[in-house]
Write a structure and sequence with these properties.
16 strands, 480 residues, transmembrane helix, binds 2-acetamido-2-deoxy-beta-D-glucopyranose, five-stranded parallel sheet, 2 domains, Rossmann fold, alpha/beta
């Protein structure tokens, strides 16, 4: 290398070294500014812009006018990552929505519960104690009931509780709830199982709503684990809209899943025709032109059953369901847990009618937030055909106006975006506790005999803003 070349290289190197950091800094600042702007947009949208109308077992939830939205430029790596992943990788700011609330939690508009419940009159101490001592001979999907106390907005759990994963997820949620909302001193019971425990004053992931004493609900572990902040949800919906535009949908209704069933635990030659998902798989064979519905995974099936289902499908990630005109949803062990993810999509959900009710399901009314089909599938082909035709029409219109299916999907997405971000999820749990307390007809015994304080470090099951995590941990006596 000549001397001049060396000097040139040296200066070039120097210039690059000097310029790159400020460039990064500048870009970063620009991105942060954009970030802030969008977080403001996300926060300007709240439940006061939704209207609630009681219809049968449901509430029809619709935006009063307009819908939330940002015109966000997605990162370059956009094509290679899921929208969920992209949304999560944005650092949610600790906006005012995450500040502790002074006032007790209230119901939604039109007195709609924030979390579904049904219970006649008060909860007596006797029924509380007998539920706490309950065991489950012969119940397929019932598990343990765990006893809790709240005293001075701190959480105590029975020493005898097994402390398994689902319990820890609920306790993490409760610690956030206690930090954010003024929960009175109280006692309550959480049920960690998929089955319905009507008749007992306990709080479960789902209830069988046909019973007047169905009980109370809390957000499920999956809902909490997959929760996002308001701004992340805004990015999520923007990403879905860009990646899965109406004009590119496949003219089919999609479903993939395993054989799990509300009634059956094992599937054999003698009982498999009672399994609803297996029946659906077989039914769909006759309508391959509109229904792409297949079992992908056998769960405790004997060889005979596997032979009958020799046309299984391949697994499709839930987010990719948005490539299709509509998404079918059907019960699993009991309620459809995946519905808590599907509600964030921009694709209409064709959902089987069911009495199993997750905490939020009453807010997605047939013909407003979802489209419902009968349990015997009698109206499924017709409803699927309508949705596919509607979606194909959207395609011809270039996806601008949007027919009935898209309108319903939009209602669903706006409701979930507004009410089911991580603060909304915590608020729903707080609501259940408040209702439970209101109905409890005894004074809480302040003794802590047999209880221990819950002091997990926030948050290991879901991603919350760092400052919130630190504040929650500190509040519950942990050094973050
Ligand atoms: C909701 O937003 C409106 C403005 O759009 C604001 O006036 C109101 O205080 C907000 N409500 C809550 C509960 O944040
Ligand atoms: C699948 O099973 C059916 C009987 O249930 C049979 O008629 C068919 O030939 C099988 N197909 C394959 C590819 O094995
Ligand atoms: C819900 O429960 C009611 C009352 O038991 C029953 O008549 C109805 O068929 C159930 N619905 C479904 C979809 O299972
Ligand atoms: C609990 O009871 C109080 C007083 O009756 C009432 O104002 C409040 O709305 C109730 N809370 C819930 C969540 O129902
Ligand atoms: C429920 O209990 C409260 C006291 O905790 C009492 O004021 C109220 O009248 C009771 N309601 C019913 C329906 O028994
Ligand atoms: C919190 O939990 C730790 C164990 O993880 C325990 O050693 C500590 O005493 C607990 N703190 C309080 C305030 O209960």
């Amino acid at each position: 290398m000549t001397f001049r070349r060396r000097v040139f290289c040296f200066y070039a190197f120097l210039i690059i070294c000097i310029c790159i950091p400020p460039c990064f800094f500048f870009l970063n600042t620009l991105l942060k500014l954009a970030h802030q702007q969008h977080s403001l947009d996300a926060l300007a949208w709240n439940e006061s812009r939704l209207q609630f109308k009681s219809v049968g077992n449901y509430f029809a939830v619709t935006p009063k006018n307009g819908t939330p939205g940002v015109n966000y430029r997605l990162p370059f790596s956009f094509k290679y990552r899921s929208c969920e992943n992209i949304a999560r990788s944005f650092e949610e700011p600790l906006s005012a929505r995450y500040h502790p609330r002074p006032a007790a939690v209230s119901p939604l508009g039109e007195n709609a519960p924030r979390a579904y419940w049904r219970w006649p009159g008060n909860i007596s101490k006797e029924s509380f104690e007998s539920a706490a001592a309950r065991e489950w001979p012969g119940c397929l999907h019932c598990m343990n009931i765990v006893r809790y106390k709240v005293l001075g907005r701190k959480l105590y759990v029975a020493e005898s509780a097994p402390g398994r994963r689902h319990q820890n997820v609920a306790e993490e949620m409760l610690q956030v709830v206690l930090y954010l909302f003024p929960i009175p001193d109280m006692e309550f019971l959480l049920h960690f199982g998929d089955g319905c425990v009507n008749g007992l004053p306990v709080i479960s992931w789902n209830v069988c709503r046909q019973f007047a004493d169905a009980g109370f609900t809390m957000p499920s572990y999956t809902v909490w684990e997959r929760s996002m902040g308001p701004m992340q949800l805004m990015l999520y919906s923007t990403c879905l809209e860009k990646r899965y535009p109406a004009r590119k949908r496949k003219p089919l209704v999609i479903w993939r899943g395993s054989t799990t069933d509300t009634q059956l635990d094992k599937f054999t030659k003698d009982n498999y025709l009672q399994a609803i998902r297996i029946r659906l798989h077989q039914f769909a064979r006759k309508y391959r032109n509109i229904l792409d519905i297949r079992i992908v995974q056998f769960f405790k099936c004997d060889d005979f059953v596997k032979e009958q289902l020799n046309d299984t499908g391949s697994w499709i990630a839930f987010e990719r369901f948005n490539k299709f005109c509509a998404i079918l949803d059907i019960d699993g062990n009991s309620w459809s847990d995946r519905f808590g993810q599907l509600v964030h999509f921009n694709t209409p959900i064709l959902k089987m009618e069911s009495n199993y009710t997750g905490y939020f399901e009453h807010l997605f009314a047939p013909d407003t937030g979802i489209i419902q089909f009968a349990k015997d599938f009698s109206d499924l082909p017709e409803k699927a055909r309508q949705l596919v035709a509607d979606c194909q029409q959207d395609r011809r219109r270039g996806g601008t106006a949007g027919g009935r299916g898209r309108r319903i999907a939009k209602n669903m997405q706006v409701a979930s975006q507004t009410l089911m971000d991580q603060v909304g999820i915590a608020e729903a749990f707080a609501y259940t506790l408040q209702v439970y307390k209101n109905l409890s007809s005894w004074e809480v015994d302040p003794s802590l005999k047999g209880f221990k304080e819950v002091n997990l470090t926030c948050c290991s099951f879901t991603q919350v803003p760092k400052l919130l995590a630190a504040a929650v941990s500190e509040y519950h006596g942990r050094t973050p």
